[in-house]
Amino acid sequence: MSIKAIITGSTGMIGKGVLLECLDREDVESVLCISREPQDVTHEKLLEVIHQDFFDLSKVKEHFKGYNTCFFCLGVSAMGLKEDEYHRITHDLTVNFAKVVLEINPDITFCYISGAGTDSTEKGRTMWARVKGKTENDLLEMPFKNAYMFRPGFIQPMKGIRSKTPGYNRFYSTIRPFFPILKKMKKFVTTTEILGQAMINTVSGGYDKRILESIDINKIGA
Fold first, then answer.
1. Could you tell me the residue range of the domain that residue 216 belongs to?
2. pLDDT of 87-115, one tens digit each?
């Protein structure tokens, strides 16, 4: 299968990891990045479109035509946000983007970066987990060709990738000596390389689960 992928969040740690793996893969024919700011990556397969308002895609949706995959890696931390604000950014924005992509490309596969601990019941005590759970559930009910929810836990950045959050970078620097040990904890830990490969492999070859935890990500991305 020749993959033509739309990527969101490609200036963030996870999205950039997915982008770099896509650019290295021969079975990925082209990549469209919808970003709020320019990035430092150029490639003959890459088209970058700068767009600020992801709730209004009317000016950019024509670019979506002809793509068969969406890697949705855009997201924010729930830290410091009230539930209605986090719900708007995490759920409403994602579902709005998904609806527009699906309208233009009915035969598209949608891959969503969620997180370990997401609450599929939508009734748990943890706010972010409830919101992520509802987002997953609503995406899985949409008539995509396929839809996969990826729930990574700890992600080790590779290939010089850095988080846009300074606190995360300090944390990664502190625990870097322990990365070789952490890599062995496949139920909880993965890397940006493996996650990117797992998303691509899931689209090209399918997977028997629609929700992939870290152990699934490491299995299919290895």
1. 3-221
2. 999 999 999 999 999 999 999 999 999 99
Distances (CA, A) of 65 to 2, 59, 100, 155: 15, 13, 11, 32
pLDDT score recorded for residue 106: 97
pLDDT greater than 90 at residue 174? no
Among positive and negative, which fits the CA dihedral 165, 166, 171, 177? positive
**pLDDT digits over 60-77, tens only?**
999 999 999 999 999 998
DSSP for the chain, written as a single string: --EEEEEE-TTSHHHHHHHHHHHH-TTEEEEEEEESS--S---TTEEEEE-S-TT--TTTGGGGTT--EEEE------TT--HHHHHIIIIIHHHHHHHHHHHH-TT-EEEEE--TT--TTS-SS-HHHHHHHHHHHHHHTS--SEEEEEE--EEE--TT---SSHHHHHHHHHHGGGHHHHTT-TTTEEEHHHHHHHHHHHHHH--S-SEEEHHHHHHHH-
Looking at residue 133, which CATH number applies to its domain?
3.40.50.720
Query: Residue 184: is its pLDDT beyond 90?
Result: no
Total number of domains in the chain: 1
